[in-house]
Amino acid sequence: MPTFNFKILTPNRMALDAAVTSIVVPGEAGYLGALANHAPLITTLAPGKLKVTFEGRNESWYLIGGGILKILHNEAVLLTESIEETTE
Fold this sequence. Notes:
88 residues, mainly beta, 5-stranded mixed beta barrel, ATP Synthase, domain 1
């Protein structure tokens, strides 16, 4: 499956910088998924669970404190105040 670059930034650090196959984020109006070659997008995010799928179908789950997601040119950047790894 094709990948795209995904970065998660907080005010204190870069929490993630990896090639991923998909993400599912908590949008203000509901959950939103993105794959490689997604259309350009800027949206606000609500606090909630973030699912990141890496190559090989390995998944990681995070709790985020809301934020902003930008997708452009096969790269997604998530800006958030807080993030911590969690379980499904």
